[in-house]
Each structure stands twice: as structure tokens, then as C-alpha cells.
Amino acid sequence: MTATKNGILNSKVPEGDLHEIWDLHKNNLRLVNPANKRKFHVLIVGTGLAGASAAASLAELGYNVTIFCIQDSARRAHSIAAQGGINAAKNYVNDGDNVWRLFHDTIKGGDYRSREASVYRLAQVSNNIIDQCVAQGVPFAREYGGLLDNRSFGGAQVSRTFYARGQTGQQLLLGAYSAMMRQVHSGKVKMLPRREMLDLVKIDGKARGLIVRNLVSGQIERYAGDAVLLCTGGYGNVYYLSTMAKNSNGTAVWRCYKRGAMFGNPSFTQIHPTCIPVSGLYQSKLTLMSESLRNDGRVWVSKKKNDKRHPADIPEEERDYFLERRYPSFGNLVPRDVASRNAKYVCDEGRGVGKTGLAVYLDFRDAIAQFGVDTIKARYGNLFAMYEKITAENPYEVPMRIFPAVHFTMGGLWVDYNLSTTIPGLYVLGEANFADHGGNRLGASALMQGLADGYFIIPYTLGDYLAENLHTTKVSTDHEAFETTEKETVDRINRLLAVKGKKTVLDLHRELGQVMWDHVGMSRNREGLEQAIQRIAELREEYWSNVNIPGESATYNKYLEYALRVADYMELGELMARDALDREESCGGHFREEHQTEDGEAVRDDENFSNVSAWEYRGDDKAPLKHAEELDFKFVTPTQRSYK
Amino acid sequence: MSDQKMTIHLKIWKQESENSPGRLVDYTMDDVNPDMSFLEMLDWLNERLMNEGQEPVEFDHDCREGICGSCNLVLDGVAHGPYSATAVCQLHMRKYKDGDTIVIEPWRAKAFPIIKDLVVDREGMDRIMAAGGYISVNTGAAPDANSLPIDKYHSEIAFDYAACIGCGACIAACPNSSASLFTGAKIAQLAHLPQGSPERKRRVVMMVDKMAEEGFGDCSNYAECEAVCPAEISITAIAEMRREYVKALSEIS
Fold this sequence. Notes:
heterodimer; A: alpha+beta; Flavocytochrome C3, Chain A, domain 1; five-stranded antiparallel beta sheet; 22 strands; B: alpha+beta; Ubiquitin-like (UB roll); Fumarate Reductase Iron-sulfur Protein, Chain B, domain 2; 2 domains; five-stranded mixed beta sheet; 7 strands; elongated
């Protein structure tokens, strides 16, 4: 069997027909016999969909698992907040769906910047996920006949999305959490909440342990194991404001990057068009409103700049329905990246609405006139109520104000087909890895990926590595590598606490977020990115000389936790800007102003950038080195997206 | 949106650690924007305290969308504060008036030891779940999802119970610190579904016994739990739990 090799980035995808690659691969993966599985100890970081499902599945197989989360309970991981649904190729509705179509929609939606074999496998196991979740008691929506209901979602022409009211993420996570808690009860999983991974311990080049801070006592703890799985989610909070939970962070992936794991496509960020706009400096996070609203809402701003009139006083002929104008065939239903970018443009022109001028209207007036208030209420009642709770405005009477917000990071640590990073024994699952979504993620695909990785991929691929390491010597936490790594962590904490400067962590995080949003956001250009790289370096310097962190290390101290995460964002943000600068094309959520058509549409460069960028850390004083995994499209033909 | 500024007086519970004495500390904020969320108001206070070289107030929070169940504040004696069916992270300051005084306390229950200030240890709830809050099905062992039709009526009831966000407000509000609504919601959810019925009796006994073992009290039908629940879990969950428990005991030898 020959594998696709790209220098040191060996994807380990076997040759074969797309539909048989995963089976062929599984046939060739080594197995660990049941008696030997008991000898292995797997460390998992994060208890979202990927982490909880992996912990449950591996423990069921007989492996010993220790799993960590930063929250007080595993059930609070941010997967819980996903609203819309989860895709699967069940074709229960008889509309012609199949594995190929789900694969094709996902890879096309990602603007052809993901690996064919990985995406195809994701589509293949999607059906098993639905079966598994139903067996766990996840209450998916059903028809009167008792069978499962489906709905349609952006980027697809079939109805393949399974959903649980507006709380699909919550119900799927509680399913995975319950499967994991069953293993906690059996003693195969040890669950350690309020613990934050602060570094990876490598011995003989392999991932062998973790340095973890106990967030209650502040004590630094050491854990040794045979493999480490990062299931730590995305790093969107580098922008300060995002739809992520406040404690979501990039520290685990960043620390592993600095220990030698490569970072894939760091600049690929999804910015969601329908979020509730910022209302003031005190704003701590942004709230997403389901994109289903664009089915009936019309997006507009005034044709005039700085028009302060009440929306009801702006006559029809003075309104600019800019999405309908620019994209007559898709109108308000253009993909997320296109809708977001166009909202930014009209605001940049000074035509934004509301007090801040950073919003556009999403107006239901015409839909209400056409279908009646009751129909609109039945479709969106809960979203309208949520909007009113936050803004104190009634969207049945006044148009909603919406603005884009950072929502998901497609980038993450580079992994091969086995979900292994370039560090042997270090695996990355779910949003934390770079895989599957390419330059843009489709709706209802994040939940699918997290659970695919945890339930149906890692239980096979991890065994292959462990089988090879059956005779590798066990390590104890007394090993000098633990000593050294712990010392580096403690020094970092002490250095940061000792600064006692003049600015709060929030001040500096807000400043970083502004730079990222302005220059590494929806629309990017060379000049802005170069400025960002310089500005982030300055901010980083200021951070380490002027931040003020209260309290001490050996105690519960939430602002210290936060400060350590922001210290890592100050480095990660720069890598994102470097990657965006290097990628001289526009694709998916990455829009480079230099690469657009005359009428402002994205231009991809398949000749030079049909690849995954994977960045190698070479020291704080050296620029990172870029490697590229070439994407070889054998089964689909990349086409240019058009929504005109 | 508002440019208005309000003055709000806060009395916040401060406690160094589990066994140290706690007390209410007064803070006054004269620049509260009515559009701030309640937690943003606390962020704002903490930023000021840090700039003044004082210690910030510790509180739990995460998603700030009302779904993760992290936030846990008792405002003027009411778990999650004055808005019904709303976690405190979804409460906005426009609900208050200029000059108001608000008392902020942590969840109080024997089974919820205080970690610091407003942060408590709720791991007892996870241990109740570990005792039986699941259907025993290994990964890969599931039949086709549509091989088991479930009537919409029971499926919807199961969902109503499954909506629990595990915040523990029910326990904080209960004069007995009972975890019956939390535990009952999971038992009732699973009791309405055909999956997992072979372990139905074992489940309820294990979970209910664990609840008592963790130091949560019994239910005396005060119904305070239902009144404060941000996910609007009905107290019928407790009736269902009891029915399941009695049935299980009478049939398990």
C-alpha cells in the first residue's frame, strides 16, 4: 500500500476508490487485544462532543482514560450551545441524498481546501452517528408516525439535517456525556473537572503526559499516559468577541504547536452573518441567531450615508436590499461568508444602522405581510423572543439589527488520516483539528465532525499506534521531562503574575481582538496583515510588561486562568495573520482583497494554493516555517463558487 | 440602546474558601448601562476593582447564552434572579432601576460546598448522573435509528425533561436542598423512551439512592424548584421519579 506523501506531512491516506479507502485502511490498522488494552492509559483534554464520545468509546473497548475539562462539569463544554442540527446521509426523506452527495456538498462548501478521503469518511460514518445517538436516548425531532424528522440547511439541496428543537448540540452532548458517565461509574474513565492543560510532556519525541493546573487549588499537577487526545475546540476568542463560550480557548493546541505539532490553516475562520450586534465597550460575547432567519428576513440598509432616520421612516425607494441587488439568484440566502462580507462593506461605506453604525437590518415586514404574524411566530418565535430579551426591541415591529461575528475556526492542529499530529501519540479531534471543513464550514457539520472523530474514527486509529507501542516503557511523572516542563509552566505563570502593570487582561485582549477583527477578519489585504503582524508583536511586548493580574497562583483565580490564555492568543493571532498573508488567494472565509473579480467576488488560485498550510514552530525568535500538504482531487473537480 | 447610566448598589457574598467565614461586601457602581447583561455588569465591576488594586469577585460563567448551566447566582434571594425561565446570564440591567440595591449570593446547599465567593462545587450532580443517568449502549452497537419508532407525544415529553441545563437552581431554591427536580428530569426523560427499558428499575434506584448519599435532601413539594428553573422543567418530573422508584422497589427483590 502506498501512502500520499507530502514531505514530512504524510497524510497516510491509502490508495483506492473513494468509497473503499476507509475500509481498506481499517483492514490494515493494527489491533490491540483486549487483555493488552487494559495496560494502556489515554489522556483526553476536553469533554465536548469529540472528547466525551472518544472517552466513552475508548473506555468501552477497555482502555483506561483520564479526561480533563476546564468547566465544573463535563456537560458544560461549548458543544452544548450549537443550535441548528447535525447532518447525515440517511436519505430518510427519499430526496436522493447519499454519502456521495453529503461528501460533495461538504467539500464544495469548504471551497476545495480539505482532503477528499477524510471528508468522504466523515460522510460515511454520519449515519452511524444518528443511530448511536438515538440508541442513547437523544430526543431528535420526530414525525407523527414516530420516525425521525429532517430539515434543510444552507449549502445543500436535500433535507438531511437531524435536529432537536433549537438545542441539538445540548442533546447530542448530553448523550455523549451520559455514555462517558457510564464509564466513570464502571471505573474505566476518571473525570477531572476544573483542570486546565498548560503543557504537553514529550519523552523520546512522543506525547507522554500533561502539565495541568488545578483551577480550584491552583496547584500544578502531572499526568502520564500512553497517548494524548486534544478535544479542546476552536480558538475564535482570539478576536475577543465571538459566539464562543467565555472560557473556550486555544491554549492546549497552542502549547502543542510549540512542542512540535504543526498548525494547519490557522487563518481559516468562519464569521457568521446573523449575530446580535455589539452594544458597548462592556460587551463580553456575541449571540448567534440561527441563519434560518434569512429564509424570510430581508437584509437592507439606507442608500444614504449616516441616515439616522427610524427604519419605518425610510421609504422603500431609499432602501438598499444589497444582497438581493448583488446576488439576484440567491438573494438573502447567499453563503455565510458572502453575507458577512457584504454587511461589512455597507458599514464601511458609512451606511450601517443603529447607534454604532455596525449593523444592518434584517427585516420581516414583508414576510409578516405575506404570511401573517402567526406563521412567522411559529417559525421563529423563540429567536424573536431571544432577540427581544437581549436588545429590548420587538422584531415584529422594528427590523432586527444584525452583524457578523466570529463563530468557528476551520483551522487547527494538522492531523493525518488517523487524526495524529506530527508528534507521535498526540491526536486531535473535533474543531481543534484543521480537518474536514476546508476554507468554510457548512451548517450542521460541526456536530457531525466532533462525533465522527470521537465515536467512529479514533477507536480504530489509536489502536494502531498503541499496538506499535505495546513494549514501550511506561513512564512515571517523576521523569525529568515532567520536571522540566512543569518548571517552564510555573515560571511562565510567575513571570506573568509578577508584571503588576497598569492594564487589565481585558484591556489588552480587547486591543488584540480589534486588530484581529480589522485586519484578519472578513476581508484581508497585504498592508493590513503586515500591520497586524507588527501590531500584535507590540501588543505582546506590552502584555508581558504592563498587564495587571490580581491575586496569586496557588488559589482559585479566574483572571489568572484568563491571562494565561490571552498570553497564548498574543502569539496565535500573529500566526493567523502570517498564514492569511501567505495565502495569496481568496477561498471560503479567507478573502484577500487583492484576489477578487471586478465585481468583488472571490478568486481562488488552485494552481498555487490547492493545499493545506501547516506551520512549524521554530522558536520565539524565529519566524515559523510553512509546509504544505498538496490536495490531490481525484474524485471531484474543483469549481468556482457563484451565487449571482 | 441607551446612553443612560444607572447607579446600582451591590451586596456581594465574599468568602475566601470552603471553611473560611463569608460576609456580604458593599459595592456601588455609578456607570451601569441598562443594556449590559447582569454578568457584564459584574465584569465591569471586576475591571474597576482590578484597576484599583482590589481583588475581583469570583463567579462561574461560560456560554452566556443560557444553555451551559454554569452561571449560578442568587439575586435578592431568588436563584437566577427576577426573570422567570431565564438563567442569570440572560438577565439585563434594564430590568433594574437607578438606585436599586441587589444582594448577590451563591447557590447554598450542604451538597454544594463553596470554593470561593460565588463559586460552588456542584460535582455531586455529576455523581448522580454517573450512578445511572444513561442508557447502556456501546458505540457501534446501535440499530438503525428508524428501526424503533417513538410516538411524538412521548418523544416531546421526553424532550421537555431532557432540556435540563444542570445548573442546580432547583437545589439552591429548595428549602431541603433536594436534587429531586434535577434527578427526576433525567429519570422521567428516559422513562418516556423505549430505549434502555431493561435497566429502567435499576436506574431509578441507583440515582435516587445516590442523591441521598450525596447529601441532597428529600422533596416536600414546595415547588420552589419549578419556579426558578431556567429550562422550565415541570415538577411532574418528581412525581414520575417517585412512581418509577416505588414501582422498582416493589418489583426488585
